[in-house]
Write a structure and sequence with these properties.
The complex is a heterodimer of chains A (about 650) and B (about 250). With about 650 residues, chain A is an alpha+beta fold. Chain A is built from 17 helices and 19 strands. Among the domains of chain A are: about 140 residues, Flavocytochrome C3, Chain A, domain 1 (Alpha-Beta Complex); about 150 residues, Fumarate reductase/succinate dehydrogenase flavoprotein-like, C-terminal domain (Methane Monooxygenase Hydroxylase, Chain G, domain 1, Up-down Bundle). In chain A, the strands form 5 sheets. In chain A, strands 5-2-1-9-17 form a 5-stranded parallel sheet, sandwiched between helices. Chain A has a 5-stranded antiparallel sheet with strand order 11-15-14-12-13. Chain A has a 4-stranded antiparallel sheet with strand order 16-10-18-19. The radius of gyration of chain A is 24 Å and the shape is globular. Classes of the chains: A alpha+beta (about 650), B alpha+beta (about 250). The complex binds flavin-adenine dinucleotide, iron/sulfur cluster (SF4) and FE2/S2 (inorganic) cluster.
Chain lengths: ~650, ~250
């Protein structure tokens, strides 16, 4: 059994990274030019890494499946990005952000990595500012901050509701600069479909050109996956519809351990599903809960419109259940409470899968103008999508899959268990434990890409300077290409009657019902069986029109859905194994008498890293014990 | 809803395209336009017909992937929205809807409603950046920026690169798109250093790529989903002129 070694440097927490950098091996400029690095992904993590490595002088090949790197899903982030600048003089520090993240993650993340993420956060903001990212400013011309995600300091930098877009376009501009200088070659509309390993080292990838259908070989001295999250496993989520786990999954099947796959954050305030064709859920910022009150009718199946329901027939269930925090309880608690009401038959809207978020009282008290100033753009978005005018009628909201804390297991170097394969941004597992704090993902993705990976990958490549350019003309590439082609051919030859999307929907429903906000042993076991049956149906009754040699969006979807089945199965195993509740992972068997999540530190203070052993073979669980030296492990309470 | 859809079908860049008519009764007013197309595609796939190809990703108006000509308007009827935000409530039962790809020499059709917008990337690669290396930035507060300037720069920076401005323009000019980036950087002190080289390089690249000239009709502004203003074009012209007279 492989022993997991996180390779955490010795020494005090606050000095680890500085020491690492001081002693890391370097590659001289002449040698960098001869080293190729593949970066898959152009979000904040991937494009940041590609441009940073390009600046250093490596030869970088950067891939994404969109038509241009500027559309990576990072573009959709709304609220903001954290840094410990302490510009507000309100007591923020690296340690405090580190502490908030460890606690927010419910003590399931690795201290050293989290501390480092907090440590580089200031560099990230400075770099974005220097690149011309137009963050919000105050009248003195300095950057403005807001508070976010219920922490006690204001450390969130933002650009209206488009922080992700502005950060990503800044990163895209640095990528373009490297493309213009010839250090980065961009390969858009390419989907990575396989990883190539030669003599135990990662040496390349196989991609499909999404325009011509051509299966291509790309080699490098090392490969970086920055391929984002897989919240889309639920089909409906707040993610871009094409976000998917396939790249990470291919790597997993080639030997990279997958950590905490069942840790997925469900965001409480998304616009609910309106019809069966719906493909996507739109997030409504968490900030709305500062003024909106959440309620459902007290009577089951109440068909009256909201405004006709008198005050005493409304159930403000969050205020009722959590008098101290009311509508401001943490994301996981708010999500579970909404599900509980809807499951019990009190949900509203056409589908009964929605609750009201009502601004009536806030408007009466503060006036429509004040509310418009705060939430105008969100109200407008709500009106565009649902036709509901939140100034007059309450919004309908419902929880939605949002962020994957789980992902590829990486050590302190951000390297997976396969030498030469790195994973950064949302695609790795490392910084958010069992629950992510708001505005810390953009921070982590950028920190990983711009400021951490360039050091750690150089440390790795320093031992590879004698290796000449990797040829793609060998058995390993041949085999990888062959397996990709065979799989694609297998998919198109099924020739059944059901679409990839219809399978994705059904799979998503199973996962949402049994491995979503609330989980129990019986449900998880049932899900496992249902997934198995659905997977068989998929492989016998899928239909894909068109051919392999041109644009074929159904083929793209089908390949991803095929992987979703396998990811889902592992997610269920992971959720079954972890009989405690922690963060977003709520096991009904592990709750306090009041129904709150109950952690089991004695038995589960570890990262579950799963090893793939072959088709239909059981996974091997490796445990990375978590040691908390610099924080005291406490109960996470909202009372 | 019952609709008559007239959709541009084109197998690939080299093939000849044509409108194909679909009588479709599976739409609901609650759908977005793209979900309506999803529903049509499901029907087509089951009938073993190649579904209509179109670009899309975020489906919330921010990535800029979606975009098609709907009844003669880029992103369809409705002001300041992308195709993915267009609701079927904008249409009536019995409507005939024409759906076409962007039409511009610089944006060749890839398949059906998908066009190749890499020309936009090429313009950005020519100079749409501020040259600063990772790790070399001073503290963010070393360089204060007037709030009004920062806000204006933000308003320019929200362009999503969808290409509707080019599609709307009878000359297929990319001026609105290019000017948004020029203006964002021109307004910020960090961007001033390379301002002259940037505007010349980006305009030169734009011209090379086969985009048309700007004749100030303002169609781009009217159809831009992010309400990028013509003021940006005025600023580009000013920057371009200044760079020319005092290079
Ligand atoms: C609606 C929403 C709002 C959010 N708001 C915030 C916020 O306010 N603050 C915050 O900190 N976080 C927020 N997040 C989370 C944050 O946006 C993401 O976690 C983060 O942007 C992920 O960045 P990334 O670089 O890891 O991946 P992504 O940006 O997802 O990029 C993934 C890249 O990988 C490529 N890729 C994937 N698979 C393949 C493949 N097989 N072949 C080729 N290319 C591939 C894609 O093309 C893409 O370029 C939000 C998330 C959502 C959904
Ligand atoms: S300027 Fe407007 S229309 Fe043109 S690409 Fe940008 S957002 Fe789209
Ligand atoms: S799909 Fe992203 S803007 Fe429409």
């Amino acid at each position: 059994m492989t022993k997991l070694d996180a390779k955490i440097p010795e020494g005090p927490l606050a000095e680890k990274w500085a020491k690492y950098k001081a002693s890391a091996k370097l590659v001289n400029p002449a040698n960098k030019k001869k080293l190729d690095v593949i970066v898959v992904g152009t979000g904040l993590a991937g494009a940041g890494a590609a441009s940073s490595l390009g600046e250093l002088g490596y030869q970088v090949k950067n891939f994404c499946y969109q038509d241009t790197p500027r559309r990576a899903h990072s573009v959709a982030a709304q609220g903001g990005i954290n840094a410990t600048k302490n510009y507000k003089n309100d007591g923020d520090s690296i340690y405090r952000l580190f502490y908030d993240m460890i606690k927010g993650g419910d003590y399931r993340s690795r201290e050293a990595n989290v501390y480092r993420a907090a440590e580089v956060s200031n560099d990230v903001i400075d770099h974005f500012t220097a690149m011309g990212v137009p963050f919000a400013r105050d009248y003195g011309g300095n950057l403005d901050n807001r508070s976010f995600g219920g922490v006690q300091v204001s450390r969130t930098f933002y650009a209206k509701g488009q922080t992700g877009q502005q950060c990503l376009l800044g990163t895209y501009s640095s990528l373009n600069r490297q493309i213009s200088q010839g250090t980065v070659t961009m390969y858009p509309r390419r989907e990575m479909l396989e990883l190539v390993i030669i003599d135990g080292k990662t040496r390349g990838i196989i991609t499909r050109n999404l325009i011509t259908g051509e299966i291509e070989r790309h080699s490098a001295h090392a490969v970086v996956l920055a391929t984002g999250g897989y919240g889309t496993i639920y089909y409906l989520s707040t993610l871009a519809v094409n976000s998917n786990p396939s790249a990470a999954w291919k790597a997993h099947k080639k030997g990279a351990f997958f950590a905490n796959p069942s840790f997925i954050q469900i965001h409480p305030t998304s616009i609910p599903q309106l019809n069966e064709y719906q493909s996507k859920l739109t997030l409504m910022s968490e900030s709305l809960r500062n003024d909106g009150r959440i309620w459902v009718p007290k009577k089951k199946d109440d068909k009256r419109v909201a405004n006709e329901i008198p005050e005493d027939e409304r159930d403000y269930y969050l205020e009722r259940r959590y008098p101290a925090f009311g509508n401001l309880v943490p994301r996981d608690v708010a999500s579970r409470a909404a599900k509980e009401r809807c499951d019990a038959g009190y949900g509203v809207g056409k589908t009964g899968l929605a609750v009201y978020l009502d601004f009536r009282d806030a408007i009466n008290k503060q006036g429509e103008k004040a509310i418009e100033a705060k939430y105008g753009n969100l109200f407008e978005l709500c009106r565009i999508i649902t036709g509901i005018n939140p100034y007059k009628d309450p919004m309908h909201i419902y929880p939605a899959g949002h962020y994957t804390m789980g992902g590829l297991w990486v050590d302190y170097n951000l390297m997976t268990t396969i030498p030469g394969l790195f994973s950064i941004g949302e695609s790795n597992f490392s910084d958010h434990g069992a629950n992510r704090l708001g505005a810390s993902s953009l921070m982590q993705a950028s920190g990983d890409g711009y400021f951490i990976l360039p050091y750690t990958i150089s440390n790795y490549l320093a031992d590879d300077i004698k290796t000449p350019g990797i040829s793609t003309d060998n058995q390993e590439f041949e085999d990888a290409e062959k397996s990709v082609k065979e799989r694609l051919e297998k998919l198109v030859s099924i020739n059944g009657t059901q679409t990839a999307t219809s399978f994705h929907k059904r799979l998503g429903e199973i996962m949402w019902n049994y491995c979503g906000m609330s989980r129990n042993e019986e449900g998880l076991k049932k899900a496992k069986q249902m997934l198995k049956e659905l997977k068989e149906e998929f492989w016998t009754d899928l239909i894909i029109p068109g051919d392999l040699n041109s644009v074929n969006q159904e083929l793209e979807k089908a390949g991803r859905v095929a992987d979703y089945f396998e990811v889902a199965d592992l997610m269920v195993d992971d959720a079954l194994n972890r009989t405690e509740s922690c963060g977003a992972h709520y096991r009904e068997e592990s709750q306090t008498p009041e129904g709150e999540a109950l952690r089991d530190d004695k038995n589960f203070s570890y990262v579950a890293a799963w090893e793939y052993t072959g088709e239909s073979k059981p996974y091997i669980l490796h445990k990375e014990e978590l040691k908390f030296v610099d924080v005291e492990v406490k109960e996470r309470s909202y009372k | 809803m019952k609709l008559t859809l007239k959709i541009w079908r084109q197998k690939n860049a080299d093939a000849k395209g044509k409108f194909v008519t679909y009588d479709f009764d599976g739409a609901s007013p609650d759908m977005s336009f793209l979900e309506m197309l999803d529903a049509l595609n499901t029907k087509l796939i089951k009938a073993r017909i190649d579904p209509v190809a179109f670009d899309h990703d975020c489906r919330e108006g921010i990535c800029g992937a979606c975009g098609m000509y709907i009844n003669g308007h880029p992103h369809g009827p409705g002001k300041a929205i992308t195709t993915c935000h267009l609701s079927m409530r904008e249409f009536k039962d019995g409507d005939t809807i024409y759906v076409e790809p962007w039409r511009a020499k610089a944006f060749p059709v890839v398949k059906d409603l998908i066009v190749d917008r890499t020309a936009f990337d090429k313009i950005q690669i020519a100079g749409g950046f501020i040259s600063t290396n990772v790790g070399s930035a001073p503290d963010s507060h070393a360089l204060p920026v007037e709030k009004s300037k920062a806000d204006e720069a933000f308003n320019s920076a929200v362009c999503i690169g969808c290409g509707a401005c080019v599609a709307a323009c009878k000359n297929a000019s990319a001026m609105l798109f290019v000017s948004a980036k020029i203006a964002q950087f021109a307004l910020l002190p960090q961007g001033r250093i390379e301002a002259k080289e940037r505007v010349q390089a980006m305009v030169k690249k734009m011209d090379e790529l086969g985009f048309g000239n700007c004749s100030n009709t303002g169609a781009c502004e009217a159809e831009c989903p992010k309400e990028i203003s013509l003021v940006n074009i005025a600023r580009l012209n000013r920057e371009f002129y200044c760079a020319k007279v005092s290079p």
